[in-house]
Write a structure and sequence with these properties.
heterodimer; A: 177 residues; mainly alpha; Butyryl-CoA Dehydrogenase, subunit A, domain 3; 63% helix; B: alpha+beta; Phosphorylase Kinase, domain 1; 2 domains; elongated
């Protein structure tokens, strides 16, 4: 019973991660829905002392990867891909630069994107990310390092960017619950 | 996998970039951290990389703010594949059989291990009702699983009655300006539960949650949680909960009426 309430607490986190991962708000909503549904039907599989957030994100990731196979027809550079139509966040940030970051993010291989989002966005520890991704901590570390360098390379090579450095003019960082 | 493009692998004469990344994430031991900071002081390229990594994090957080409409997610039952439905139905059936046989064997006395005791924490079904309201009432896309206006009500009620194995009654709240929008089936404590949703002209919603609950509570209970109120009671083997994001004083007379309409004893509330 309180398990449901616990899940509700993590809904915003799941939703944010799903949006970032898929780049598609509608898909993200479905993923969160599916995740919550699966979590509720499998709550007995959750060991008492385990980390609920990591467990939920693990389920979400599995579902995403399953669904990715069905979505494979969307090419990453496709101008019609959902994330290319994703609304840019409102005024406080330099939306042009953020849009480049967004583009670069979805050009990363999924393995790099997910670790970058788990640690860089969701602020999971390497240990927690290792649980979600089912890989050793060392792999999290090196994959993440590759992801960041890959982002750097993508942002530098973008011809529209004329070599300007990545900068965030002003961000309003929302705190996590 | 494209992950093999090894951007972080230290090339000849190139520093290990993993430490720079781990510095940003605060994942280094004290000694490693000190060493890395020293390195940054003399290595402008490493310092630029660390700054870039931090900027990436900030950009990600700016791009993906925490959703504000936290409850616009559905939690239960939509687009469930048939085989899963069959599984769920079978599970409920077995619960039903278990309950039925248990009840039969003790001549109507409900074993304690099946239902939570009333005095211990708040009645579980009321909590579920309360959460179900929080989850579905703000939902724009799928507030209900099966839509039904007052005319189509019969079909919805017969579907949910079949699932709950009870003949359900859905009281009209027209008098209070709330019309039935539809309903959904949810898993409850000891079997399925039905949630009926009503909405008024201003778009405000109330839900009536109905589930099996084998004890009668003489009195009504009230759960209040962040502006959300749930009145709950039990009667003739069923638990009922009326929830709304409305003041208690507004909800109470409606709940009294609903209780009466459902064969309860609102007079005992006073």
């Amino acid at each position: 019973m309180s398990f449901e309430a616990d899940i509700v607490v993590w809904l915003p986190v799941m939703k944010r991660y799903a949006r970032a991962l898929t780049g598609d708000p509608a898909w993200a909503d479905d993923l969160v829905q599916d995740t919550a549904e699966r979590a509720l039907s499998r709550w007995h599989a959750l060991r008492p002392q385990s980390n609920l957030r990591a467990w939920l994100l693990t389920i979400l990731r599995h579902l995403y990867i399953d669904q990715l196979r069905m979505h494979r027809e969307i090419a990453v550079d496709d101008e019609n891909a959902p994330w290319s139509r994703m609304p840019a966040p409102p005024g406080e940030v330099d939306t042009l630069v953020l849009r480049d970051v967004q583009r670069a993010l979805y050009r990363l291989p999924i393995e790099q994107r997910e670790v970058l989002l788990l640690v860089g966005l969701e602020e999971l520890s390497y240990q927690e990310a290792a649980i979600v991704l089912k890989v050793p901590v060392g792999t999290v570390m090196s994959r993440l390092s590759r992801a960041r360098e890959h982002m750097r390379a993508l942002l530098a090579e973008d011809p529209c960017r004329k070599g300007s450095a990545l900068k965030v003019v002003r961000t309003v960082v929302k705190s996590t619950p | 996998m494209n992950d093999d493009r090894d951007y972080a692998k230290p090339g000849p004469g190139e520093p290990d970039l993993r430490a720079l990344s781990a510095l940003v994430d605060d994942e280094l031991s004290d000694a490693e951290r000190a060493a890395t900071l020293e390195r940054l002081a003399v290595d402008a390229d490493a310092a630029r990389r660390v700054a870039h990594y931090r900027a990436q994090n900030a950009a990600l957080k700016a791009l993906f703010a925490m959703p504000q409409e936290t409850t616009r997610c559905l939690v239960l039952h939509r687009r469930v594949p048939w085989w899963q439905r069959a599984g769920v139905a079978a599970a409920w059936l077995s619960v039903g059989i278990m309950l039925g046989s248990a009840l039969g064997s003790v001549l109507g006395l409900t074993p304690n291990w099946i239902l939570p005791s009333l005095s211990a924490d708040q009645v579980a079904f009321a909590q579920r009702a309360n959460i179900a309201y929080a989850v579905y009432a703000p939902e724009q896309r799928h507030p209900v699983e099966v839509a039904a206006n007052e005319k189509e009500k019969a079909q919805l009620v017969s579907w949910l009655s079949r699932r709950l194995d009870r003949s359900l009654v859905v009281p009209s709240l027209q008098e209070y300006g709330y019309a039935l929008v539809g309903g959904r089936l949810l898993p409850g404590e000891a079997g399925p539960a039905a949630q009926f949703m009503y909405q008024n002209a201003a778009g405000e919603r109330l839900t009536l949650y109905v589930t099996q609950f084998s004890r009668d509570t003489a009195a009504v209970g009230l759960l209040s949680d962040g502006g959300r109120n749930t009145f709950y009671w039990a009667n003739q083997g069923m638990g009922y909960a009326l929830s709304g994001q409305v003041p208690e004083t507004h909800l109470r007379p409606i709940a009294l009426d609903v209780c009466g309409a459902l064969g309860g004893h609102p007079e005992s509330w006073r």
